[in-house]
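S1.2 Input.
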Amino acid sequence: MLRDHPSGNYRFIPGITAFSSGVIAMPNHQIVHATLGAPLPWRAGFTQIDRHLREQGRGRTALCGIELRSPAPFTFEGFAKFNEGYRALLGEWGILVGDDNPIPRTNVAPVFAPPAEPSLYAFAYTVPGGTPSPTFVVAGAGEMRDRTHGAEGIVRKGETSPDAMKEKARFVMSIMQERMRTLGADWTRATTIDVYTAEPIFGFLEDILRPAGPAAIHGLRWFPSRPPIQGLEFEVDLRGVARELML
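S1.3 Output.
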């Protein structure tokens, strides 16, 4: 299932038109994760990415991960419309591989201090230089069983009881497991687990950290946020990298 990016120095799991499901660095390269000190409107954010990549001696196709923050969850229709403009920009940058969008993405709506418009929060890119274990990024995933069914594909749709949240967490963590397996990664290599939900997480921490196995030693980062589509309540992304930057 993995495809090579011809000039990005990474391999990816094909996903949907808006994003891939994950990436892993090719041999003799590694993925660097960079967080902005303050989010920027997403198009201005891409201008900053372009500038940063040039400063690092890297081309645009080294970009291999995007994290966005939005004012509020989208409707299914609004999400599709936003993705049209986002994908078009990736096409202008020469990043798409045929019809595939190779870049994994997380796009969530913070409960506190949300931006006024969809904004860039963080990104990832490849650089030369291997690591003992291949570095990787897994895209954010919510509790959506079947995207083609719209809201009816959501696990325990409309429920936020402790039991429902545990089921949602277990479902999403199984997606993370499957994506890592496809990448050829595993929990021993995971360095960061990000959790996005507006619900208190204490009642289902075990359902997140127990499946993470050895990665649980790093704990997790909880962002009080809602997933990008109305009706979703829980999302996770993760990565395994050796270098983290704050810009």
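S1.4 Remarks. DSSP finds four helices and 13 strands in the chain.
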